[in-house]
Predict the structure.
Amino acid sequence: MQWGQIKSLFILCFFILDIFLVYQFVNNRIINESYLPESAEEDNLKNNVLGLDKVPEGVIKESELHTVRKEFTKDDIAELDKFENQKSVVINSNTIISVFDSPVEINPDSNLTILDNNVISWESYQKWGIDQNTNSILLFQKMEYPIFFNQSGLLLVKLNEDGKMIGYIQTMLEKKDDPTDTEPLIKAYEAVSTLYHNGKIQPDDEIRTNMVLGYHNILPLPDGAQVLIPTWEVQLKDGDVFYVNAVERHYQSRDETVFVEETLSNLRLNLEDAASVELELVNFEEGSVKGLTKSDLITGMLKKFDATIGVEKNDVEL
């Protein structure tokens, strides 16, 4: 064999060896990062993340939920009609927009039972928090667990500058099928670890509130149905809020102000095809909306929700 051929063979062998070593290095690195022993992973978090006492322990088994938008029934509307201090519009049987004739006292930091006399089925929701930028209380529908940031399962309560209720928007979901089989979810620690290893939680960041399991969905299906996936909520002290898919570890952040603005924008967008919009008016005086188009009526009511801190009385006479 000539020396040139021998040299080429050596080069080829070393090239193959280099490829093999690179493969082994990358593969081992992935394994080490993704499959740290549980004790080592927790120790790593304890050394770098604050507030881990708010991370629940143990394994939870849950299933995804298949839901559709609830259509408010005649009984629901009859209950709504009993509330004398508000005027309501039911849009396409699935969305209620109400404005109060006189602002209603409420203490969002304590008992919300005042909603008993102002909102139907309000006990199906739980308070998530207050968006200071839009002066709104966000209540998310719950189906054993809360359904995070879902425009179809929302009670959005608008406050004026005195902290009194001046109106609300309400939607609801209902189960479409029986729940699927339950499966073990990733642990809460694993959700935090996912955010940490992807740079969303930095060293010395602090978890602000107790981690909560709920449901989350990004977009509804074309027929309006939704598949809700078990999801861990992680709120950080700096204000960031992340939602980690408890099955596949996908994650995303949500912002309450953006969510409120998107909710209002989508309501207006749905009015563009006015011919297909069905309205049912509740507690309106006869003739009070004479001459108003559907779009004018809803747009006028939504102006109340557009205003931020500084709203003191109804901007739109209905």
